[in-house]
Prior knowledge:
The chain is α+β, with helices and mostly antiparallel strands and 289 residues long. It has helices at 5-10, 22-31, 44-47, 182-186, 199-204, 214-230, and strands at 16-20, 82-91, 99-112, 119-129, 134-144, 172-177, 237-244, 253-258, 263-268, 273-283.
Amino acid sequence: MSVDLDKLMRLEIPVVRQELTPRDIALYALSIGMGRDALDARQLPYVDPLQGPQVMPAMVLVMAHPGFYLGHPDSGVDPKGVLHADQAIEILGPIPGKGTVESRTRITEVIDKGAGKPALILAETELSDGEGRRFARLNRTTFIRGGGGFGGPSEPRNPVPRLPEPQTAPDHVVDLETADAQALIYRLNGDLNPLHSDPELARKLGFERPILHGLCTMGVVCHALLRALGGYRAETMRAVRLRFAKPVYPGETIRSEIWADGRFRALVPARDAVVIDGGLARFDPAPEP
Length: 289
């Protein structure tokens, strides 16, 4: 079904306010698998409110989450055709560990790949604290299967260039397991899309079982990046962007291959499947000893 552009552009995406608590911060970190290594004390401030709370920078992906707004009947989109295509985060300032945070989301472009082909919805979210200070910007592309044919532009105004594949072995390889219930835990952050919980719906959409949220996969990979490039120092992570290539099933191990210049990809070794590609991370350099 083609996107109804008029309805989509009239859709009121809610402005969301959230009162952050230490529980929220620990829940997010646990929902992306932090704390699974009980002997790694570097992870404890992220998952134990008594030792933190330290905000995992990738938590900006779920703060004041607007929910599955493309599933609204007035969105002009068939919710069964929605898949997350790519995502970027940029940290603009200190991430608050408590108090009010607010998100404002807007659709910036809608791309038409032709009748019977996909549509791409580009959206931007800005996060601010209780004083109105912006601390993060999120950009995402949503892929709408069969949503093309409405007469829109075929390419974005400012496309992000694809990065060349590294020709050397990665400088870091980080394997992180996901739990069988990972998607069910991650849903508690606010994204209740039933594709991640309903086996019957997942099968109807061509998956053998419910898949992990793309943003949960991104959170796991950001954990790997924070370990490899930031030494678990949250303040060093400045920006991450990536493309979702294939889904991850809960219970699978995600292997992140990371290069020193910030390029990365992720795969599921058990299926020899690349699940994230085109990754680029920016970290502040380590302080001088």
